[in-house]
Specification:
Glutaredoxin, alpha/beta, 4 helices, 5 strands
């Protein structure tokens, strides 16, 4: 299923189902109160448009602490890239990320 937006992942079971079912997935971790997440949310539609071959999902970090711990997500905003059920890249830290930084990370990881 191809989408132009980000659907939510709300629990670990849903996470595994999505990663196993989709060939190309990018997951965006964020929180509602994080100023750096607010900045990245503003450019996410452009990132989604740049990488139309991927399915994008978002996870609210504080609503999924079990999944955060399981995947070692200790900062937001963060990004994980999966191809054919395998994680091929992650940009996980608590620093503000620019549009260009995220685009370059995805481009380098998938090439």
């Amino acid at each position: 299923m191809k989408m132009n937006k980000m659907n939510k992942i709300e629990n670990m079971e849903q996470y595994y189902e999505i990663v196993e079912k989709n060939e190309k997935v990018i997951i965006y971790w964020n929180t509602l109160f994080c100023p750096d997440c607010f900045v990245s949310r503003r450019f996410m539609p452009e990132i989604i448009n740049d990488f139309k071959e991927f399915n994008f999902y978002k996870i609210e970090k504080n609503a999924n602490l079990e999944l955060d711990k399981h995947l070692n997500i200790y900062g937001v905003p963060s990004f994980l890239i999966f191809v054919n059920n395998k994680e091929i890249g992650r940009l996980v830290n608590k620093k503000r990320k620019s549009y260009q930084e995220v685009k370059d990370f995805i481009t380098k990881t998938i090439s």
